[in-house]
Amino acid sequence: MKPLPSTSSKTPVKFRMPTSENLVPIRLDIEVGGQRFKDAFTWNISDPDSEVSVFAKRTQKDLKLPLAFATQIAQSIQTQQTEFRSYKGQEMLTGEKIVPIKLDLRVNRTLIKDQFLWDLNNFDSDPEEFSKTFCNDLGIEDPEVGPAVAFAIREQLYEIAIQSVATARESRNAKKGRRGEYSSISRSTGAALDLMKLFSNRYSGVRKRKEWDVFEPMVDMLSNEEVAALESMVERKPR
Amino acid sequence: METTTRQDPKAESTRPDEPEFDLYTIPSYSSWFRWNDIHETERAAMREFFDGSSVTRSPKIYKEYRDFMINRYREDPSTRLTFTEVRKSLVGDVSLLNKVFQFLNQWGLINFGADSARIESENEYKDEVRVEDGPPNGIRVVADPNSSKPFPASHAGAPLGADVRRSKLSPLASYSDVFGELGKRKGILCGSCGGNCESGRYQHDKDSYVLCVKCFKDGKYGNKSVDDFKLHGSSVSDGKQRDAWTEAETLLLLESVSRHGDDWDIVAQTVKSKTKLECISKLIELPFGEFISSYNLGKDPASGLSGNGDGGKDVFPSLPEQQDMIKSENVMSQQANGNEQRGDDADKVPPLKKQCVSYSSGSGISIMRQIARISSMVGDDITATAAKAAFAALCDEASCPSDSFNNEEDFANELWPAMDQSVSERWLICAEYNYACLD
Predict the structure, then answer these.
(1) Locate the SANT domain: which residues (chain B) (predicted)?
(2) pLDDT of residue B364
(3) Strand A23-32 vs strand A218-221: parallel, antiparallel, or unpaired?
(4) DSSP state of A3
(5) Average pLDDT, chain B
(6) Residue B291 backbone zone (phi > 0: left; psi -120 to 50: alpha; other: beta)
(7) Of the candidates A96, A118, A209, which has its C-beta nearest B94's C-beta?
(8) Nearest neighbour of A4 by CB, restricted to B48, B62, B83
(9) Mutate to test the interface with A, among B73, B94, B105 (most CBs of A within 10 A)
(10) Nearest-neighbour CA in chain B from A222: distance (Å)
(11) pTM listed for this prediction
């Protein structure tokens, strides 16, 4: 098990997903000739065997999409991969970082709203395991919900990781003596909750009862009509 | 699993006027647990709370998490407490909270008496994974790829594609599943002398006790009365007796198949007392039967057969060497000692076996290599199981004391002192094969 970095000093760490597996969230939203294809999944960026072009071709075939989709899918994935890799080697700030993760998603007929805390320093964290427990405990039967939840968590973690790279860069510049950056440093802790406030309830690990609802997951099953209505609403929105 | 009931001290302290205590059950291996303390077990399992690495993780906070979860569970001990239920009430990283939750769960400090509905559903999922052995349905296994005629099946007469014997074994096939049928064909055994009753038997009226004709005549009724026995004429015709394979016939069969491969005319000639068809079906029934023939197709191009080539070779090493081991095995089991395989035994075996021994000595592949090849075909656990089964069977068969085999390591080490345990186990799989031939 990885020893946790000491938090007395804000020691920078090389960029990576703060989870036990370095999986990158990939989102696809491609439109070709009136047909729209949306998807979201995680990709193992360090797996030499996973070929983007093979995956793209297979997806296009399986879903019986027109041929043009294959190249677009491959392109989109590669772009996102490149972006992820561009952060590699850069430093990101660590330090006590417990961030709120919010879930607000719909998967087929299941609507999920949830909120909880995630420790960015915990490199052993596993969104997939969390999501599996989530679905088991709440008796969710739709097998597509689990991966969607895990994906949502990863996406947010990815965003925060990118931000922390930016703030690390800023703080480095600030150390070099640029006065104007002080305000941005204070902003860097914006994503993380003030730790004192975290344990607001008399510095206790137990949350105030009135806040329990906020952090409780809400799972709703929609009827088919509601699903259709929601989907048409999304479609009509200009991109 | 033992359980200890623990009094809940909290109940005692907050409701002093109530005479009764709530009793909660936790497993005995968790009896170290104390409400007012944190035990070494907890400290070791969850170091993050105790190494001072963060202000959000302290012993105090750990204890709060722990106590909250346990109390929450005890509000309704019959219901399984889920992680999702507690995490909303606790401040902190959910992965860490889950770690605490899993710890308590595994030690039975929570959910020990709860219904196991979730466990069952997890097990159901595991059961859906079926391991299938052997060729899939719809595929015919043919001995000679050139001939389109499949092997005739076993006595059951089912089409070969569905009934390649080996494929029907479930993942938990036991020794008797594999070898039981070989034993059954011995026919009905006499309860007194253990011999075959094919020529007629005396059946007890009330239970399944059977005496062969000889024992009946000798008056060996056991503790049963002579009047209770009824004679059953030999229901087996001469034809049936012809069907049973003796040890000598089996060895002949194997030897000739190894020499002549797929040429069943010659094989049947060698095994004089069996027809071509019988030879073929007997060969399939043997656990390694198909491999022998398919191997030999690759081995002997001179006989005009184009074989599976590589496939056959990989599957089974040189048969004659195998037989050599088998025969010497045989002898050893009778003599119950650990001689060197080739040299000594060649002198002691009857002429038939000796002939085989000398035949095989020309082959260049060492036994060690063969053993290694065999063992690479099958998994270690199969090897070990087969070895144990083989020894048990050998001991039974040859009526020799199992002591000489009990210390398997020494026994094998006598022959090959440099061999390590795994290799000696592989050698034992040959013993298993040997038993299969002794029918």
Answers:
(1) 240-291
(2) 55
(3) unpaired
(4) P
(5) 64
(6) alpha
(7) A118
(8) B48
(9) B94
(10) 22
(11) 0.47
